[in-house]
Amino acid sequence: MLQNHSAGKTSAATMIGSISIVLWGTLAVLTKLTGDQFPPFQLLAMTFTVATLTLSGKLLSGKADLRSAFKLPLSGWLLGVGGLFGFHALYFVALQNAPAVEAGLIAYIWPLLIVLFSALLPGETITRWHVSGALVALVGYWVLLGWKDTAGNLQWEYLIGYLAAAGCALIWSSYSVLSRLIKNTSSDAVIGYCALTAAFGWLSHFLWETTAVPADPLQIIAVLGLGLGPVGVAFYTWDFGVKHGNVQLLGVLAYGAPLISTLLLILFGEGTLEANVIIAALAIAGGSLIAAKRVA
Questions:
Q1: What's the confidence (pLDDT) of residue 68?
Q2: pTM of the predicted model, to two decimals?
């Protein structure tokens, strides 16, 4: 009976974590609606400020404890802020120093790394189904982004961008897996992570960028949408999911985010439904089903 209860809690946490994947699927559309109006660190700072204010609603409602959000060990702060700010900072470096598609191909190895790194966690076991599912989903992701047409274009002049993208993959997978080691800390800590990430974002912006002003209300709505969803609630639900859910399955399911993103872009007239999208959908769905098979 106790085992069934534990399994039920794990499944529920996995479902909560998967909310992040759906929200991250809206990232490209919302970013597109900003009209490329804002420099990278300003956009990061604005969206994480919105995220901090949004999540702080829990504090104001009395559903979260202020100490849970800010009273953390140094290791917790380094992990949380390093994960959120480090990933985004390196991703911006990658996009500025390499073509977006190639940077994306490299950066999105992080779900596979989550599956592999989870084997190092105490009490966790990784099966051939987890690895096989992650590889199938990864192939689907590469098909989605046109790996066949892109792989031959990798050039040494973009090495800094490629290394930054690889750093993204390493940072986010490490953050996701290592969060399991501090699972006794409340996910309310994400409020503190977002607050410090916003502060570092503003500092970086004022040091290296020129402030841009929104050109129309739609851009303001897009920034608010980013801060509420893929940058706000998504990090909270992901933190809870990787701490208490099936981290291997979440890693594989994460390949659904770029697929959702592509389908939304098509829906908004930013692309067409082609064979590679259908193949990728089947591969990512198939990989997720394989990973969900709990047979050693």
A1: 66
A2: 0.88
- For 229-296, the DSSP string reads IIIIIHHHHHHHHHHHS-HHHHHHHTTHHHHHHHHHHHHTTSS---HHHHHHHHHHHHHHHHHT----
Sign of CA dihedral 79, 106, 114, 245: positive
What are the DSSP calls for 46-115, one per residue? Answer: HHHHHHHHHHTHHHHTTSS-HHHHH---HHHHHHHHHHHHHHHHHHHHHHHHS-HHHHHHHHTTHHHHHH
pLDDT digits (tens, 9 = 90+) for 137-158: 988 888 887 765 555 556 788 8
Q: What phi-psi label fits residue 62: left (phi over 0), alpha (psi between -120 and 50 degrees) or beta?
A: left
Q: Do 33 and 230 touch, CB atoms closer than 8 A?
A: no
| Contact yes or no for 124/118 (Cβ under 8 A) | yes
CA–CA–CA angle 154, 155, 160 (5° rounding) = 100
- 79 phi, psi to nearest 5 deg: -70, -50
Instruction: Write out the H or E segment, with its range, that includes residue 164.
Output: helix 159-178
- Return the residue matching tokens 């659904």: 256
- Do residues 26 and 224 lie in contact, with contact meaning Cβ atoms separated by under 8 Å? no
